[in-house]
What does this fold into?
Amino acid sequence: MSWAEGGRLRGPLWASGSGLLLALAFPRADLGLLGLVALTPFLLGLGGVGRGAALLHGYLCGGVFFLILLGWMPRVMVLYGGVPAAVAWLVLLLLVLYLASYVALFALLLAAAWRRHGPIALAAAPILWVGIEFARATLLTGFPWGLLGYTQYRNLPLLQAAAAGGIYAVSCLVMAANAGLALLMAQPGRGRTMVAGLLLLLATMAGEAGGFLVERGAPGIPGEGGVIVAAVQGNVAQDLKWSPKEGGRILDDLIRLTRQAAAAGARLIVWPESASPFSFRRPVGTPLPGGAVGGEAAPLTVTADAAYGGIVGGLARDLGVSLIAGSVDYTVRHGQLRALNSAFAIGPDGELGPSYDKIHLVPFGEYVPLQRLLFFVNRMAGGAIAGFAPGTRFEALPTPVGPAATTICYEAIFPELVRQVARHGVLLVNITNDAWFGRSGAPRQHLAMAVVRAVENRRYLLRAANTGISALVDPYGRIVAETPLERQTVLVGTVAARRDQSLYARAGDWLAWACVILTFLHAAAHGAGFRRQAGRSLAREP
It folds into this structure.
């Protein structure tokens, strides 16, 4: 019995197994090398199957994978969104069904090509996968969590492909390894073996070239010309983060940790997203996201937290350091006062400098998309979804290193957004609050995606996370230093300004778009073939 025939008999089991293996390639298990073979059974199971079976295999593989990968979501919705457990699990299942639809579409297209061309159709798998993966990362605000290439965030040689084609280049190589192995295991044939060898050779050569770049590139810790920087990890539990009673203690801890970082020689010190319950510019009477109100109503120019700016500015001036600190900010749009999720620069002179406002907000976390249609969502969450407004400027913040391309939390998972900000900076800074996720695999999954942004843009990355994982990543993806979860600490390291631009920084998602076009042409060609076949069948009927 051939592997292809076995796939027809045991395809659903193989598809489910591939979903499980792929999930194990991501954190928590973090068995990254599994990613290079995890999808091979799924690919083999598509041999010769019909449309219905292909869709079933795709939904099984994608469903098992995303259900395990995103299993932390119901806890977040229940604990911090006030959503009933049954509703939280229903939301997760609907999201998994939606995300699995992309895997099902991939299976449908690849199975159609296999029926027409035989196992050699596996050569198209890397292109189809990347084209559909890019669609998932873009459509409906995009959700690029769990892209195939992220399984290799610790595989430094293979990871260097991201500097040329972004994370999608890494996904392409990982799928090429899976498809090459599947083609070797399918019914043998000289031509097929040659194509399989080429697919495997592509992944191997990319790894070798990447290894050469890592060996010849800048070391993890820069030498002369480096600047000492630090990330402050205040470790504030999410249920205490916006408590007015805890504000003084939180600020005292941040000040103490900042002094500790300055004593270690840091010239740039980064605080996490929304580091404290206070705001640098909050109008009196305006409630914070947690519901704390500053006082009676007053004009926009009057701030309830004016003392906070003075304290933080005085700290920077006394220590002679620059700070980047996350804070809620406010603006007037269309005659309404709106909150912004912002990062502020404070110079060594103690003056409050420019800010970066988060552009890509978290749907159903920081805002409700299609508010008029989905008006009931915030009510279901007990009003817990904050109504933030998106930022509009890709602006770097001034630091002693040079302009710091700063992103906030969820933005780090969007390659093109980070690329747009990085074009204006010599250093990447990411501030985040992953306290929502507890000790699940989500904080490590989030870090893995941030690591790839450093490689794509060939920049050092300094990441400050409220409860962890804070990290320093070099331009080749080495995690030079990282902090443990849920521990109050300071991460100190050395960075250097980088002004060169990678191919990805210059050209963006050129590879992903090429795969989208080829995937569309592939789908159109098979659609036309299906219509011709259906027409001939109808013509033969009496």
Notes: Confidence is low (pLDDT under 50) at residues 1-8, 290-304, 370-385, 534-539. Residues 233 and 427 are 20 Å apart (CA to CA). The first helix runs from residue 3 to 24.
